[in-house]
Fold this protein.
Amino acid sequence: MKVSTNKRAQGLDHLADTLRTAFHEIGAHGGGLFLYEPDDSALVLSVLVGVPRDLLLPWARTAPTAKAPITDAIREQQVVWQPNGETMVRDYPRVAITLPYDFSVACVPLTSGQEEYGAFFALGVADGPAELSARARAILAATADTIVAHLREARDQGRPVLPPVRPRVVDPVPDEHEDEDGAIARMVRPIREGLCALDVDGRITTVTDAAVDLLGKPRERLLGSRPWTVLPWLRDPVFEDRYRAAIMSHRPVQFTALCPPDRWLSFHLYPNDVGISVVITRTDVDRRGKAGRGRRTPTRAGELYHILHLASALTEAVTVDDVVDLVAREILPAVGASGLALFRNDRRAQRIRLLGERGFDQAVLARVDDAPLDTRAPITHAAVSGVPGFFRSRVELELVYPDLAHRPAGPQGWAILPLITSGRPIGACVLTFPQPHVFTVQRRAVLNSLGGLIAQALERARLYDFKMHLAQGLQSGLLPRSMPDLPGLHSAYRYLPGTEGMDIGGDFYDQIPLSPTVSTAIIGDVQGHSVSAAALMGQLRTAALAYTTVFDGDPGQVLAHTNRLLCLMESELFASCVHLRLDMSTGRVRMARAGHPEPLLSSPGGGRVMDVPDGLLLGIDPEAEYPVLEFDLPPRSILALYTDGLIETPGADLDEAKRGVLNCLDAVRGLPLDEVAEELVGRVRAEPREDDIALLLLEPVPLEDGPARE
């Protein structure tokens, strides 16, 4: 059911009035309202009270998964309070990059049970209290209830309040005193200092004769314009930034600027309920040499902060998939696009390859992916030439490329950005818009900058993916592909890479049969998570295999000689290790340990942490000795060898963690050994972990059971 523009405006006006009343009661000088898109794909800035739209441009469309106070309030179902700029920098650095001012903000979720409508925020005086008062919280909660009730009622009556294309901007207080304001304007007109007033959007609403003379522009040119737009000498983003600081912090701000050729003016900005009052005076401050002349018009401050916002988002991407996900999640909503496709140039094959897409026309992808680079099409042209293409509508696209093999039927606006690094094009980023889209000079500058940022992020990600593929291939080649099947012994193993950083490590394990009834087993952990750690792991595993054969699996000798070899290699990395020799015919085990976590034993008589004498880590002292513990391993017992990733979590007590694993082992003993292994690693599989995990389970069985491995 379509909602008329008038009814939508009425719904937003009602919400604006509700917010305005609440802000007045708690002393906030402004704020705004975010509403969900109908498909919940983004939070859209829908109402602004006392705040210009351009100030919040980077957050006008915010992904629900973004790290921001407004999204955290919805996720946590509670008010998020940031009392000043310092806490914003600490808790929300990406927000602080785009709004580097000292201000307080309270973000309030608009929810009812499982229903989420959005959230609103209130801007207060900087250096607010560390905690919101009970009165302020009560007013904010009541306001949220009122807004939710209105949104629910409008939805149930078939006239839902939908996010507008542009947010509705209103003053904090209704303009009820126009005659009085006009009288005041006439009163101050003779004053020598120039006086003018700006609304919350930065446009001049009142200007005195003295201000007209000082600024050097006719009154009709000034009224309704922004100073940094109508006055070329105020187009430096520093000056607009001072206005933004006054709006956000609600504190007086001052700056000095040169009005050509030689008139220095001092601007004092005083924020009020409806905008900014400005006092302009001549100044004797000599700043000659500091004002640049003959420069090109700089990008506005709001656009610069928008670019910073996008750049800070892209720093979080590690892999190519991360780049695609982040651009789709964070950047598409920010620029109002609905479709994304990233392509790279395959110079060797002279073709263009798709890296990833979200919401893109599949028919277009089928035509473009794997197409020759010399194909005459807008995407290949940008990818090869490095020249962007901006098409307001599908009609414009077809006028420039009338012979396209496939004419897209869905998207209207197209931005085709070349991805350039080190001066060479490496691909293209394509953004599509559901409606015809006007690409202003400022918007083109932002999108071109965005293309450069995406290109750099992709190059870093591709290099990372290449290194990861190389390292993982190295590690998988160094770990055993299978374990031997031995009469009288079941075994199971698991290896889980870390989920943070490079998911390779130095954990290793192996099982080496010496005869049909005698086997050795080893598990170890080389310090670090790198290609060097993986390479050293392979060397240690090979050395242990050789020494096991030479010394008939004697654990003390194997560890001592492996340690001596590692010391001779002069590696900067250390390693921990457990080595054992098991005679299946007698059930006798001999075990030695080098700085490694104690094995766990679960038997019919009960479980325990094995008290194995500890020796130094391998690679520290070439003369170190490793005492051997001998014990019996009854049939149907399970001996668990593991690396520290299984038990180490931030803030956890290691002894308690070992007991937790042992309790789990006791509880599942009796299941097939492979299921036991899955239960043990399943406890930590879904959790973020910095370390990798290796697990080796050994279960002696009566010899008549024959070889088996679950």
Q: What stands out?
A: The chain has 20 helices and 28 strands.
